[in-house]
Amino acid sequence: MVSEKLVDFSRQKDAIVTGIKKIKNSKNLYKSELHDIFKPSKFNIDDLELIITSIENKLRKIEMIYFTYFNSEYDSSIIVNNVVPSSVEGMITNKIIETKFDFGDSILKNRVDIDTPILYKEIINTQFQSFILSVASLYEVLVKLCETLLKKIAIHIGNKAPSVRLDNFVLYWDILVELDYRKDDEFYKWRLNHRNFIDKYLNQINTLRNRFIHGYSINLEINHKKYIVSNYDTKNFRSVSGDKLITELILDNFKENILLNTRKLTTQILDLFVKKLSRPRKIPM
User: 234: buried, middle or exposed (CB in 10 Å: 19+, 13-18, 0-12)?
Assistant: First the structure.
């Protein structure tokens, strides 16, 4: 039985919304005119709550996928050897996964019963796709949160702005700081604290996202008797020598790195907004 406590950002959400309401009631602390020139940037309390709720829900989905199908429950030998593990006395058994997740006052229980190696492989492939698409979607909403509360970083022409990917957002941010248009403040230090992960994994996540949406490859393959991520970024993921296995691309390692770092950077940016909004300041920051 997998039993895990999932993220709960209700405290951060309440603190951020409460802080914004206090600031908006003080006209000298709320400055949106310049922000509103670079549309769409109309400040809306209801939208802010929805944004944080969306971040929370997406991260919980990522966690549930990971803890249900990966981590302690993942068995690559079923895929590599094309056989379900045998029980005592050689009797073939199904792959059974039981989970219990709690967050806030809610509890979610589930049971998955898989009877063939082919089905197990198919489920792992589809859950990997859902995991990547959910992570990419979460990153876009994180950008939306920053674009709402911070001085504009991504500038759009026209009334309707496209979604901004995190890689483009951090690139613009780096350039603005380098040109001294933005300060090297605590928010930018948050970006720098996660530079290694973002610079290494973000392009790979976006490549997989695009391949899943526009292509047909499962982007996984058996290599060195391991199930690994294929179609990888050779610039950031390199073998030590020759055809040696890149351990970071082994599926369970790959997903663990993404989950842990995604959860960490998401929690830290929300906590930073809580900290900044605990004292009077102008919005956008």
Answer: exposed
